[in-house]
Amino acid sequence: MTVRKYFNGFNLIILKKQGVVAMAVKSFQQDTGSTIYQVTDDTLYKSNIYCEIPYCSADSRYFVFHRQNPEYDRNGSEFVICELGTWETHVGGRGIAGLSGTAITHKGIFYYLRHADKDAIELVKLNLANGESDVVHTFNGKLKLKSLGTISPDGNKYAYGVTVDDKYTEFGIEVLNIKTGTKEIIDTDPYILNPHPQFEPSEGKLIMVQHNRGGQIDETGKLIRLVGEEGATLYLVEVANGKRTTLQVGKPYTTPATGHEAWIGDTKEMLLTVSALGDYAPENGNLLAVHAGEPARVVCKGYALNHVGTSVNGGFFSCDDSRTKDIIIGSMKTGKTYVVCHSETSYGRDQATHPHPYLTPDLKWVIFNSDRSGQPQIYVASIPDCTIDELERE
């Protein structure tokens, strides 16, 4: 049974299941043709997790978001699974505070870390499609993790950033072999303090690393600066031997990378944004695609794009415009774009006030953050019929 009421200008959809209210969402139309659904309204801190890849089940039936719940001490992070369309939610798992170590595959297998007994930390695998979870590895002792995680496409390797020394002068990329339980630091550098490691999703032989040149953390672990005058760039590291290949983005090739990037499907090409200045001002385009060993190319023009997401099939992208706060999707093939919705978020210092939009694998929804209601909540925007076909049309 579904009951519809009007509430403060929103369409309030109350979904009932066996006589019990399962979920209530606010929905509204925008001039873009999209219907927007506000799927959370509680006061707990939350975010849609980071947008570099979709946090969805492979069939696009479910997505997962993060919520911080102070009722749970050691494992205060709740990973909430939401069913698209019905908006029913349930907690899929609880882990360590924050988002450190979280990862997902294109098949919708989500990984997170949780405190176990004593000093042990467990790596948990959660299938978003059926809610089943398993502990796949236990870390004993202190884990000096310094990033989101990333999973190889075969699910056998888990990589993450770590601090190498106790004075925060050297950082590394550590790879765990889940099958054998062995760990190895394959790359070290003083400037990979915010590395955003990402396994290449077709073969898993490469990991993309964000290189925040000039960044610094003091001896107590406090951030002094995230990046220096040199600006950020990206490089690839080979998992087998640690060999690096720097991509031709950031100084001296382009304006500095913003730190928002994603693999474009199985093409072995990266999508990223750079500072929207000079040759990369909005009218020229600051959304770039780059292959190893080749100059970067402009994907689209007309926006000051910031956060980046790519579709599972590699054909489309999602971004937010830092000036208008609009959410943009577009075709990698044609460069054509479409404003899906106006996020109306504040774009403040808190990352949860940044939209971080991503496309579901079926290309029917965009999931994003907004504090338009006064605090960060999770929103879902529908993509109007025929939009994807029109973006593909030359």
In short:
The chain has 394 residues and is an all-beta fold. The protein contains 1 helix and 33 strands. Residues 1-10 and 12-21 have low confidence and may be disordered.
Which terms summarize this structure?
394 residues; globular; Methylamine Dehydrogenase, Chain H; 2% helix; four-stranded antiparallel sheet; mainly beta; 1 helix; 2 domains; seven-stranded antiparallel sheet
Report the sheet with the most strands, covering strand number, pairing sense and barrel closure. Answer: 7 strands, antiparallel
Total tally of structural domains: 2
- Measured by DSSP, the beta-strand proportion falls in over 45%
CATH superfamily of the largest domain: YVTN repeat-like/Quinoprotein amine dehydrogenase
Global structural class: mainly beta
How far is the first residue's CA from the last residue's CA?
43 Å
Strand order of the largest sheet: 1-2-3-4-33-32-31
How would you characterize this protein structure?
This protein is mostly beta strands and 394 residues long. It folds into two domains: 1-30, no CATH class; 31-392, YVTN repeat-like/Quinoprotein amine dehydrogenase (Methylamine Dehydrogenase, Chain H), CATH 2.130.10. The protein is 2% helix and 47% strand. The strands form eight sheets. It has a seven-stranded antiparallel β-sheet, with no helix packed on it. The protein has a four-stranded antiparallel β-sheet with strand order 5-6-7-8, with no helix packed on it. Residues 1-10 and 12-21 have low confidence and may be disordered.
